[in-house]
Amino acid sequence: MIKSLKINDFILIDELEIAFDRGFNVITGETGAGKSIIINAIDLAFGARASKEVIKTGKNRAVIELLLNVSEDFAKTLLEEQGIEVFGNELVISREISESGTRSRINGVMVSQDVMKGIREQLIDIHSQHMTYTYIQPKHHIRLLDSYGGPEHLEKLQNYKEIFSKYNNVAKRLEEAKNKTELSEQQVEFLKFQINEIEEAHIEDINEDEQLENELQVLANAEKLKDYTYSSYWSLYGDDSAIVPVLGKIKTNISKAGEFDTNLSEIESELINCQEVLRDISSRLRDYAENMELDEARLNDIQERLDTLEKIKRKYGNSLEKVLETYDGFVKELNSVEFSEEEIQKLEAQKADLLQKMTESAKNLTQSRKTIAKKLGSVLSEELEKLDMPKVRFEIGINACDFNANGADNVEFLISTNVSEAPKPLAKIASGGEISRVMLAIKTIFANTDSINTIIFDEIDTGISGKACQAVAEEISSLAKSHQIISITHQPIIAAKADRHFYVSKSQEDRTRVKVYTLDEENRVKAIAMLAAGDITEDSIKFAKQLINA
After folding, report:
1. Taking the CB of the first residue and of the last residue of the chain, which one, N or C, has fewer CB atoms within 10 A?
2. Residues in CB range of 343: below 8 A, 6 or more apart
3. Beta bridge mates, 414
């Protein structure tokens, strides 16, 4: 549930903090006072689309923060995947909107809007006028029906989805195979020629050309390398005036000097090391010079091999690695081209088998939906009767359609509000007040089957009054025993059922300001009296008290 909401510099609000209660929280106030701003702030905190226009004029950012209390069975996997620690049962969700963009955080860790929306689906359900008209659209009805079906039905739906996915995959592969066989014989022969040409190059090392270039450089300069290395050997060790013999004489002198001063022993040791290192280097230079010979045959072989590799690279890639990638592509294409009739027949058999399984699975899914639809229609009719729609008939129509990701059913909610009329599509029949009650009935039923524990109603009482309003008030009050309800209302009957009452006011002096007050018992009575009569009188106060105590 939402424990508190903090808002800074959002639309008309400078600074605001609201502490919500368990049960039924009601928000009232004059029309245009800014009640919906509070719902919009909660919606934005949970990932709704935001624009910089919501930043209060003259400010550079708006910040919304929610403190939530989650249940023990709250699925925390999504948070753990994002590296978010959960301390106890509390979550802090925040959204910052600035000129440059928005940032969302959970317990201080920045997250994407997709993550935020995933958390929203587990915790909160916001019912606005927009959502009313979304829910009456038939395309949403199949999802609502399936979600009411329970684990056994959802398993059938998942089974169908898996078969449907496999069927589409096989159908796509079969179509590709048939298309590939339509390539001309000339195209296939050219593909084989390209593959053969690359194979004849015998490329086993993608660095072969670089290695050959280096070897070619060495062989082409063999005489110079021989001269340079032998000359270097001679300077190091060639005669008594070379570096190593002279270093030996220096070492001898230092050794003698060390007899008089032991501090020179370290220098002697270093000279010995230098002498050994230089002696080893001179030996390696001598061997290199003596073994360096111009190999004309090898030089020609390297040049021929490099010519072959350069030709292949010009045709199939600017490096040997690219050439081999091109080769793999050719082989893959040829394999797909050379699908045999036997392979095509195999895919056609798989497709036919999957079509049969998909048909059977869809049939089972349809039957399951019809059973669930009958039950849900009956339950919704009962709920609507409680909401002062005594002659209502609520049915769920299921008609066949082409196979799709959800099966082979078109699902649509149907309603009759008059005993003499047959049920017709919800979107075409129900009035505004009737739609509000239908939505409340749906929310009530599904609230008992999902994990959401906070439901927000933005003017659920639209288009209703009198006895219907009383029924809605009792329904919301009943729902509030198991869920946190936050509702904007203009109906005193509904407001009187609240566990906590908030009043929104707007002042326009030097600038527009919106404030929210948590009402004590006395001011709550006055607020309900204002809703009922438009004025605070002795009679309206008396009426308000009667509503609260009813």
Report:
1. C
2. 177
3. 395, 425
CA 22 to the chain's CA centroid: 31
Question: What angle, 0 to 180 degrees and rounded to 10, lies between the N-to-C axes of helices 222-237 and 208-220?
Answer: 70
Displacement of CA 259 from its chain's centroid (Å): 80
Residues 6 or more apart whose CB falls under 8 angstroms from that of 492 comprise 528, 529, 531, 532, 543, 544, 547
The pLDDT assigned to 181 comes to 64
Cα 20 to Cα 500: distance, rounded to the nearest angstrom: 8
Q: Report d(CA 92, CA 75) in Å as an integer.
A: 16
Q: Rounded CA gap, 433 and 129, in Å? A: 12
The amino acid present at 264, given as its one-letter code, is: L
The CB density around residue 509, as the number of other CB atoms within 10 Å, is 6
pTM: 0.61
Q: What is the largest CA-CA distance in the chain?
A: 129
Q: Which of 445, 437, 417 is nearest to 491 (CA)?
A: 437
Identify whether the C-beta of residue 320 lies closer than 8 Å to the C-beta of residue 185.
no
Q: Are 111 and 94 in contact (CB under 8 A)?
A: no
DSSP state of 351: H
What residues form DSSP beta bridges with 98? Answer: 61, 101
Q: Is the dihedral of CA 358, 362, 363, 368 positive or negative?
A: positive
Split the chain (550 residues) into runs of 10 and give each run's mean pLDDT: 92 89 90 83 88 88 91 72 79 90 88 84 76 70 88 94 96 82 72 91 88 84 86 85 87 86 87 90 87 80 88 90 91 74 84 96 96 92 85 91 94 86 77 75 76 81 78 87 89 91 84 84 91 86 87
Q: Which helix (H) or strand (E) holds 63?
A: strand 61-69
Under DSSP, the state recorded for 422 is -
Closest of 542, 513, 501, 509 to residue 29, by C-alpha: 501
> For position 183, what pLDDT does the model report?
61
In the block, which residue shows the tokens 């050997």? 233
For 312, the 3-state DSSP assignment is helix
What is the three-state SS of 62-92? EEEEEEEECCCCCCCHHHHHCCCCCECCEEE
Specify the pLDDT at position 182: 62
Q: What is the pLDDT of residue 451?
A: 66
Quote the crossing angle between the two packed helices 296-316 and 320-337, to the nearest 10°.
50
| Residue for token pair 């029924």 | 471
Token output for 335: 């394999």
Degrees to nearest 5, angle at CA 297 with 291 and 303: 110
6 forms beta bridges with 17, 65
The identity of residue 195, as a single letter, is I
Residue 460: what pLDDT?
76
| Beta carbons of 215 and 300 less than 8 angstroms apart | no
Q: Are 135 and 359 in contact (CB under 8 A)?
A: no
Which pair of tokens denotes residue 480? 């509030």
What phi, psi does 393 have (nearest 5°)?
A: -125, 120
Q: How many CB atoms lie under 10 A from the CB of residue 260?
A: 8
Q: Can you give the length of the chain in residues? A: 550
Q: What is the dihedral of CA 445, 447, 448, 450, to 10 degrees?
A: 120
